[in-house]
Amino acid sequence: MLLRQITLQDLFISVILIALILLVSSIFKPKNRVAHTVYYQRFILFKILTAILFVLIHSYYYKGGDTFLYFSGASFFFDQFVNNPLSYFKLMFSAQNEIANVSYTTTLAYALTTSKDVFFLSKIVSIFNILCLNGYLASSILFTVTTAIGIWKLYTTMCKIYPSLYKFFALGILFYPSLGIWGSGILKDPLTFAAVGIIFSATYNLIHRKKILLSVTAILLSVSICYALKPYILYTFIPIMLLWVQGSIVGKSKSQVAKYLLTIILLPTFIGGGVIALQQISAGAGKYSLENVQSVAEGFQDWHSYLAETRDQSGYSLGEVEFTPTGILSKSPQAFFVAYFRPFIIGDVRNVATLFEAIQALILLVVSIYVLLKVGIFRSIKIMVSDPDVRPFILFAIIFGVTVGLTSYNFGALSRYKIPGVPFYVASIAIIYYLGYLKPKKGYS
Question: CA of 392: how far to CAs of 77, 329, 351, 406, in Å?
Answer without folding.
Answer: 41, 19, 35, 21
